[in-house]
Amino acid sequence: MNHAKIIFLSILLSLTIIARADNPPPGKEQSDFLAKRTDDNMLRGTFNSYCSYLYAVHNVSIHTESSEINSAPLDSIIPEFYKPTWRELFDVIAIQTKSVWSYDSTRNYWVFSKPEKPKVYYEIAPAKNWTKSDSGLYVGYHPTIAPVGMDIYILGTYSSDDPGGASELNKKLEEFFAVNFARPFKGNITPQDMKNVKIGDYQALHFEIKAPSGIIWRQWAIVYEGKAFVIVSAIKPEHDAEIYPDAQKMLQSFKILR
Q: Are residues 134 and 216 in the same domain?
């Protein structure tokens, strides 16, 4: 083998090594992206309009073939103080659009689609003769004698980069969600105005008040291992003795799925 050919093969080998180093195994690039945090935590508009926003501002492409998902409104529920990972942000979008998401390597974007079966984030034993309605962000349970009985809001999953800070983050999130749900009924409310109670296996921050309309408003904020929920109950006083015992039984059966 002549000297020139040896030099050529050495250069080619070097380029191959560089190419392998710059191109991680399939899936690693996407996994690394999903683990990164973004300071853009404000969901806005519909899924369709948010697609355009993400692409224009972050060069992140999400897509759906479903007209129902495309037109679904997005609510900004993530606290301003929290920077979600892209995985967590996508999960919040999926909750609100009742979808699941995956990466399409052929088209290089994230696809949101309707699952064969609705994704389940918790378990609960509904009271007898109560009906269920799934709105994405929350699931409503309704007794026969009233339009509202109990709603369970699914508020996403949160994480701390410091394992030692997880407990502190859970408490901060619990107080944030509890105050934000209660503020329409008591503008100057603080976590100190609420009670720590037990709901099944979980600690919850509880608040109860008689609303200006006369409705009895009750709420429980739960954040367990980063998974956030707020359970609310709005009952007319004349129905409270009949409805609330059933709601309490349902509360005690509440179980967060991993």
A: yes
